[in-house]
TrEMBL record:
Residues 58-68 have a biased composition (Polar residues). Gene3D superfamilies: 2.60.40.3710, 2.60.40.3780, L,D-transpeptidase catalytic domain-like. InterPro entries: Big_10 (IPR041280), LD-transpeptidase (IPR050979), LD_TPept_cat_dom (IPR005490), Transpep_catalytic_dom (IPR038063). Residues 41-68 are annotated as: Disordered. This is Ig-like domain-containing protein.
């Protein structure tokens, strides 16, 4: 009996063999995948590798500071105002460092305030100047955030300067204030006054006082102490003195106070006692203003010395009463025309009676050639800033702004 093989059995055998081969191949591939995934742990190992990546990303994000630094004006800004425009602040943190510099590397002074919330400059900025800003803040976790910026200030169309006395490097008398007159009337006096700083050695309190809107004088309460060194810093560049008008001056002025010389004129006794350091070194016969032309009373500071000058009554409201073209050894005491000067035409008036038009006259010779006459001696022993005090005249006390004569104002009014 012929028996035919069962074809199904043959197919199953081949299928089992194929399935076994397929299983072997899949096993090898699975082993390769787990090995590339880091190996060792089966399917859980692959899953663990993905979690590590996510955690690393989370850690990077948590290391970034939450503090936000804001700088105004914006980076690259032009024509920035010199006052009020520069502001630096921090949110979600506190400022720890702020540096503002100009192109030359000079730093702008300022202060962090509000517990680290803001920084503001201590003064105005210079005009036509590029500034760079570097600001750093920390959040509550101590993580740092920083911002850098730059901007350029405006170039003003209208400017002002100040003309001052005494000169840099000079030695002056104990009565010399630092006086500055501005080329434009000042309507922001506080800003201008703040832009002028005065330091002294030895230290003494020095205060400023405005006369009108174009003159600012500085002095201590009492006459300067001999030997005092005074340093004045004018930081007027960029300060807005009036609307749309900016200062353009940056300068340091230094001067020294010389020996203490104060001369006391008694209009009734017709004498002048010259004192140094409180001791009388010479008494000089003088003539002062005659009735109707009396000399001012009060403390007057020497502001100008002229070896020879012309004195014309027309310039001081006295018409054609006099015109002397060669007045010798003249030292100015007031803006209105009061001088101590040599007098070669006074005859016997010196020490005897008052004959002048308000000046203090000392005997001299025409041409002022003699060094031995009283006028020459006084002129040669005086420096700008020395004080002449007039008493017992029939006139009023000289106004504090008539010359450098602020000493005739009380300290309380001076500092009010």
């Amino acid at each position: 009996m012929n028996v035919r093989p069962i074809s199904g059995a043959s197919v199953d055998a081949r299928g089992r063999r194929n399935k076994g081969l397929l299983a072997l191949i899949l096993g090898v591939l699975l082993l390769a995948v787990t090995a590339c995934g880091g190996g060792g742990g089966g399917s859980n190992s692959g899953s663990g590798s993905g979690d590590a990546k996510d955690k690393a990303s989370d850690t990077a994000q948590t290391k970034q500071s939450q503090a936000v630094v804001t700088i105004a004006p914006k980076d690259g800004s032009k024509s920035v105002d010199t006052s009020g425009a520069l502001k630096i602040s921090a949110a979600k943190g506190k400022l720890t460092e702020v540096t503002v510099k100009d192109a030359g590397g000079d730093k702008v002074d300022g202060a962090i305030t509000g517990g680290g919330a803001t920084w503001t400059p201590a003064t105005h900025l210079a005009a036509s100047t590029k500034y760079t800003v570097h600001a750093v803040a920390k959040d509550s976790a101590g993580r740092v955030a920083a911002e850098d910026s730059s901007f350029t200030t405006l170039t003003p169309a209208n400017t002002f300067v100040g003309y001052f006395t005494p000169e840099d490097g000079s030695t002056v008398g104990v009565g010399m204030p630092f006086s500055i007159r501005f080329t434009r009337g000042i309507t922001h006096p506080g800003d201008v006054k703040k832009a002028i700083s005065i330091t002294t050695s030895p230290a003494v309190d020095v205060e400023g006082h405005w006369f009108g809107n174009d003159r600012l004088d500085f002095r201590p309460e009492n006459y300067w102490k001999s030997g005092t060194k005074v340093t004045v810093k004018l930081n007027l560049d960029g300060v807005e003195g009036r609307s749309g008008v900016y200062g353009k001056q940056t300068k340091t002025v230094k001067f020294t106070i010389g020996r203490n010389q104060v001369s006391i004129v008694d209009a009734k006794k017709h004498t002048m006692k010259v004192t140094q350091d409180g001791k009388t070194i010479k008494t000089i016969p003088v003539t002062t203003g005659k009735p109707g032309y009396d000399t001012w009373n009060g403390q007057m500071v020497m502001s100008e010395k002229l070896t020879v000058t012309r004195m014309n009554g027309e310039t001081v409201g006295y018409g054609g009463e006099y015109d002397i073209k060669d007045v010798p050894h003249a030292t100015r005491l007031t803006d209105s025309g009061t001088f101590v000067h040599g007098n070669y035409w006074g005859g016997d008036a010196f020490g005897n009676y008052n004959a002048s038009h308000g000046c203090i006259g000392l005997r001299d010779v025409k041409g002022g050639y003699s060094k031995t006459v009283p006028a020459a001696w006084f002129f040669n022993h005086s420096i700008l800033g020395d004080v002449v005090v007039v008493k017992n005249s029939n006139d009023a006390t000289v106004a504090p702004d008539n010359g450098l004569n602020g000493w005739n104002m009380s300290w309380a009014k001076w500092t009010a």
